[in-house]
Amino acid sequence: MTTVTVTANQSKLAPTVTRQLLHDSGYVLLGFPLALASFVVLLAGTALGIGLMVTVIGLPVLAGTLYAARGLADIERLRLPSVLHQPRIRPHYRVAEPGASAWRRIFVPIADAQSWLDLSHGIFKLVVAVGTFVVTVVWWAGAVGGALYWAYDWALPRSPDNTDLNELLGLGNSTASRVGLYTAIGVFFLITLPIVVRGCALLQASFSRAMLTGVAEMRDRIIVLEEQKRAAASAEATALRRLERDIHDGPQQRLVRLAMDLSRARQQLASDPEAAGRTLDEAVAQTRDTLAELRALSRGIAPPILVDRGLPSALAALAGRGLIPIELRVDPELGTQGGRLDPALENTAYFVVAEALTNVAKHSRATECQVSVERADRRLTVSVGDDGQGGAHAAKGHGLAGIADRVRAAGGELTVISPSGGPTEIRAELPL
């Protein structure tokens, strides 16, 4: 029994404009004094360390300056997520070997490339911070002062020799024209304030990200790609071994028996035609069984319905063959012409569900199962849950290890929640 329920995409609410404006403003305004302090401390420390390089004292001073630059860089890394909406990334710095001498420890930061990037950031960030600070202050002053100009116009002293902007623009010298013009300018600053401040914050944060986390992001990306490559190779090898085992244990044995039956039928044909007929009937049955097993193997690799009609139809057919009741919730757009996923991603999602349902049928002792496939926030979430005995895990040598390798090869993450006694949930997060 299979119950099919369709669910629509749900998106998370983005931060409000006001909240983001406050975050960006705080980031830019606080960035200026931090940049000024970094500039003074690091430039003085670098100049002193290089100046004393001819003596022994210069090296410890330079190493201490690099450590100070690292601490200031860590402060900036803590501030970046509020603007860039990305997780905090801290590079892996060189560390001294256990038992290293004091001089060896002094040379550790000097030989670390990221430490010099931190130092460069602390010195040159002042250039970016000054510009963004000035623009942000001017826009806030224009927005607040202009939008509220009507409230304090009466209190401003005026001399007969002064000429206001409204007079220069030919709008007259009345109070209404003056208040209207300055209020309109303030409204313009107020409307454009989130955009301008956001641009200043992104400019400052992008500079910091390039200097402080760019190399770390590239290194982490390389590590992730290497892990995905190894996972893909492991998943492919596992799939090939499984296919080889299934062919050897199933169709190959039947084909061997078919050859033996045909050979026996040929020998019986002259002496005992009736026995030859019975043998040929058995051979025909063996042929049908072999074709059925080959079709089952092909469905496990890439079922035709997945290629022709998409993931929802393929999962519905898969759930329909289940031995226990399966509730299927799937995004209907995944089966439309414009909403279909990349073929490789479709195969991965189908493989996750198929293998998970196989493990449920073999090991869980469950009475019902739930399958959910949803797309949201540039990610595809595939979830398979059951009310079985639990105890499942993705360690090597177990049934879920192949699913973990396949998901990791696609750049995703597999989570297995299966306490002893159940229930069990297998959830795969795949990037779109």
Q: Characteristics of this structure?
A:
alpha/beta, elongated, 9% strand, 6 strands, 432 residues
List the helices and strands and how they pair.
Layout (H helix, E strand, L loop, with lengths): L1 E5 L10 H35 L6 H22 L1 H4 L17 H9 L2 H35 L1 H4 L12 H4 L6 H38 L1 H36 L1 H21 L1 H29 L2 H6 L1 H10 L5 E5 L12 H22 L4 E8 L2 E8 L14 H9 L3 E5 L6 E8 L1
Parallel strand pairs: 1-2, 2-3
Antiparallel strand pairs: 3-4, 4-6, 5-6
Helix pairs in contact: 1-2, 1-5, 1-8, 2-4, 2-5, 5-8, 9-15, 10-11, 13-14
Shape: elongated
Structural class: alpha/beta
The average pLDDT value, as a whole number, equals 79
Helix content: 55-70%
Summed up, the helix count is 15
SSE order: EHHHHHHHHHHHHHEHEEHEE
Question: In whole angstroms, how far apart are the ends?
Answer: 31 Å
Molecular structure report:
The chain is built from 15 helices and six strands. The two termini are 31 Å apart. It is 66% helix and 9% strand. A six-stranded mixed beta sheet has the order 1-2-3-4-6-5. Helix 9 packs across helix 15 (401-409). The protein has helices spanning 17-51, 58-79, 81-84, 102-110, 113-147, 149-152, 165-168, 175-212, 214-249, 251-271, 273-301, 304-309, 311-320, 343-364, 401-409; strands at residues 2-6, 326-330, 369-376, 379-386, 413-417, 424-431. With 432 residues, it is of the alpha/beta class.
How would you briefly describe this protein structure?
The protein is an alpha/beta fold and 432 residues long.
